[in-house]
UniProtKB/TrEMBL annotation:
GO terms for cellular component: cytosol. Signal peptide: none annotated. Belongs to the GTP cyclohydrolase II family. Binds 1 zinc ion per subunit. It comes from Halomonas eurihalina. This is GTP cyclohydrolase-2. It catalyses: GTP + 4 H2O = 2,5-diamino-6-hydroxy-4-(5-phosphoribosylamino)-pyrimidine + formate + 2 phosphate + 3 H(+). The active site is at D126, R128. Catalyzes the conversion of GTP to 2,5-diamino-6-ribosylamino-4(3H)-pyrimidinone 5'-phosphate (DARP), formate and pyrophosphate. Residues 8-169 form the GTP cyclohydrolase II domain. Pathway: Cofactor biosynthesis; riboflavin biosynthesis; 5-amino-6-(D-ribitylamino)uracil from GTP: step 1/4.
């Protein structure tokens, strides 16, 4: 696997002006983005998130999941800390792709949960890969992460490919009537370390999101 660094630029956001770094996975042709803020290459653990692309949640304001809410909250926390990193990986729908994700949503509309829908389409519950994270972090001089995630499997996967995760930081936000069952399934079937009572309701996030 070859991850190639392309370029960097400023990225002003509502929370802070980040530096946006572009990378290309030459094996797949996919582009990935890393946002950094402050001095991240000083050897100290960096507050960070590894966020897989979710077009519906991140860009189209879907309330079926918590992805867009988590993305916003992670950027907000990094801005408040004045230092951090967010890896934005192009692996939509836990790795099954956008069109298959729409097919999975159709099955969920018929009553399947998020795991059952993937399995009915012939996929496992999660096909994401994290080996591409290590070369990007190494390029940026980041030695270790305080990782914002509710998913212990993500911590294990990153550790397995050589990323030093020194702390898991919970990220519970965006609960609403449309994603309550989805979140319960993530906790019950995928082992996410969270309870619905831990969540900040969707109405309390900084940027208004329309149903």
């Amino acid at each position: 696997m070859t991850i190639r660094y392309i370029a960097a630029s400023r990225l002003p956001t509502p929370w802070a002006t980040f530096t946006m770094h572009g990378f290309e996975d030459e094996a797949t042709g996919k582009d990935h983005v890393v946002l950094t803020l402050g001095e991240v290459g000083d050897g100290q653990p960096v507050l960070g998130r590894v966020h897989s692309e979710c077009l519906t949640g991140d860009a189209l304001f879907s309330m079926r999941c918590d992805c867009g809410y988590q993305l916003q909250e992670a950027l907000k926390r990094i801005a408040e800390a004045g230092r951090g990193v967010l890896l934005y990986l192009r692996q939509e729908g836990r790795g099954i792709g956008l069109l298959n994700k729409i097919r999975a949503y159709h099955l969920q509309d018929q009553g399947a949960d998020t795991v059952e829908a993937n399995e009915q389409l012939g996929f496992s519950a999660d096909l994401r890969r994290y080996d591409l994270c290590l070369p990007m972090l190494e390029h940026l001089g980041i030695d270790s992460l305080r990782l914002m995630t509710n998913n212990p499997r993500k911590v294990e996967a990153l550790t397995r490919v050589g990323v030093d995760v020194v702390e898991r930081v919970g990220l519970t936000t965006g609960l609403n009537p449309h994603n309550e069952h989805y979140l319960s399934t993530k906790a019950g079937k995928l082992g996410h370390m969270m309870a619905l009572g831990d969540f900040t309701p969707a109405s309390d996030v900084d940027i208004e999101r329309k149903p």
